[in-house]
Design brief:
Shape: rod-shaped
Number of helices: 9
Order of helices and strands: EEHHHHHHHHH
Mean pLDDT: 78
Strand order of the largest sheet: 1-2
Number of strands: 2
Largest sheet: 2 strands, antiparallel
Low-confidence stretches: none
Helix content: 55-70%
Strand content: under 5%
Distance between the termini: 139 Å
Length: 314
């Protein structure tokens, strides 16, 4: 251990040769310079193959030197301990009673302290900066994001027993998603160029895609519900309008057909038949004044035409 200790001059920072009594840089007497000694400090653990001693990188399951397969490797203690504490906290959550549910719906119930503790624990957990810890946490987060709750419009859509339970599911999923996003961005900055980061990115992309699809599905449900509501509002009015429009349209078609028959009679010189049909061109008084006026003008015009034709052919 002593070999790892080097002495430096406290005045100028020059390295002190072993056994020297004066600094070769500034001439200061060495004396007791223990306070200026710099120590080498090692951080973290070096993982080696138990078979050949080769240094092993993160996420490796087979030794690249000797082919030894690693089994029963320990997962991240920090993330595992966090998951265990979270699971214990969730197991202590009591099912809401009918009375508490009614009280909360009226705005007089107490907030769920257990649920708040769960959310705070997720939000405040500090994920270590190692690749193993980040990957372990991303797996944990993605598996706890409830896709059904995100897309659910009603509690039954996500298997919840009440709106309160559905809201709790959504709140947890939001907390996990927010934390996953935060951890991913930090990992991208810390070791985004590392080949092992691809595994983290793929997991993040799959989870994000599933979340976005769930949100789009919910938007479609909401949109369809609105459209259905509007249809239920306007369909009666449309049907009411059709009740009046259809008979009117049928009467219009009948009159137009009569006009065509009159034109055929005029062409054949049957003016008497044409005149009788022209005089029948009447629109009912209960229709619009514009429609009635149109057919009155049409009738008078045809009668004049027929009489003129009869006069010309005498």
């Amino acid at each position: 251990m002593e070999g790892n200790i080097m002495a430096f001059c406290s005045e100028c920072g020059q390295k002190i040769e072993q056994g020297a009594k004066f600094c070769s840089g500034c001439g200061k007497p060495i004396g007791d310079n223990n306070g200026s000694q710099r120590k080498q400090v090692f951080e973290g653990n070096i993982h080696k193959c138990p078979n050949c001693g080769e240094v092993i990188k993160s996420f490796v399951t087979i030794c690249p030197s000797c082919g030894f397969e690693f089994r029963d490797t320990k997962s991240s203690n920090a993330v595992k301990e966090f998951a265990d504490k979270l699971e214990y906290l969730q197991s202590q959550k009591k099912a809401p009673s009918i009375i508490s549910g009614v009280a909360k719906s009226l705005g007089i119930g107490k907030s769920d302290n257990n649920e708040e503790q769960i959310l705070n624990m997720i939000r405040n957990f500090t994920v270590p900066n190692t690749k193993e810890d980040v990957f372990e946490f991303m797996i944990l987060a993605s598996s706890n994001i409830n896709i059904s709750a995100i897309s659910a419009e009603y509690s039954s859509d996500a298997g919840a027993n009440s709106t309160e339970e559905l809201n709790a599911m959504k709140a947890r999923s939001d907390a996990w998603q927010s934390k996953m996003e935060q951890v991913y961005q930090k990992a991208n900055i810390a070791f985004g160029s590392d080949p092992d980061f691809i595994k983290i990115r793929d997991l993040y992309d799959r989870t994000t895609k599933a979340i976005n699809s769930a949100k789009k599905a919910k938007s479609r449900k909401t949109r369809n519900t609105i459209i259905l509501g509007l249809c239920l509002m306007f369909v009666p009015a449309i049907l009411f309008g059709l009740v009046g429009y259809i008979p009117h349209r049928m009467r219009e078609n009948k009159l137009e057909q009569t006009v065509q028959e009159i034109q055929v009679d005029i062409s054949n010189g049957d003016y008497d038949a044409a005149l009788i049909k022209a005089q029948s061109l009447h629109m009912d008084d209960n229709w619009s004044s514009e429609s009635k006026e149109h057919w009155d003008e049409q009738r008078e015009s045809l009668i004049k035409l027929i009489e003129q034709k009869k006069e010309d052919n005498k």
